[in-house]
Input
Amino acid sequence: MSDLANVLKDLATAGDEIDRMVADLDDTRWALETPAPGWTVSDQIAHLVFVNRLAGTAASDPEAFRAMTEKASGDFDGAVNAALAAYASDSPQVLLARWRTERAAAIEALASVPPDQTVPWLVNPLPPAVLACAGLMETFAHGQDIADALGVRREPAPWLRHVAGFAVLTQAFGYQARGLTPPTEPFRFELTYTTGELWEYGPADATQRITGPAHDFCLLVTRRRHRDDLALTATGDAADHWLDIAQAYRGPAGEGRRPGQFSDTPR
Output
């Protein structure tokens, strides 16, 4: 897994990208529906406020974190919806200020955790670098929803490497969300960044293989694009099945996206 300082630097960069997308929007555009059913641009930012607040609290005050999440046991979706409702009366200006404060606090808190220690989280404690990678995955996913709502085309960023690595680490989530048993066979992932750099994960001799653009892979595992609209190739039946169910987050998979839903197929 990546070095904590580098992941946190990239987490700040990813947050700044979304900040630039929304900072100058009028109230009407904050209320735009995003591709996530029932979620507006404002809801997407509210969710990121909630996630950053959780991460910052987990890193700085584990007991307070446990008190925050105790009620969410077994119903994280319910907790997320309750959190969104708590921000419903915030104006866009207040919500943006809260997000800036919470993401800065989360980064500062995670930076203070010794790399050899773990941070309590929703199911299992995590090393701070892994939790920061999870934050990058959330930032990328919800930032994509905002970009799609606003008609913004995002360029692939080098920090997607952390998202890709986190998705490989959490390869089993798609099976768990559907009550399936993950295969025991190892997978090989060979993902190409826009510079031509190859990001490699898993045994080189694995027969189950996923290859293709790194940006496409990140869109797949966050379920922000359908596999039919992405240039990813599977070798092996298990790998092909995984492309149908891949997700880099715990819990229900959600509706995902329809084939052909977006015209800007990221090649």
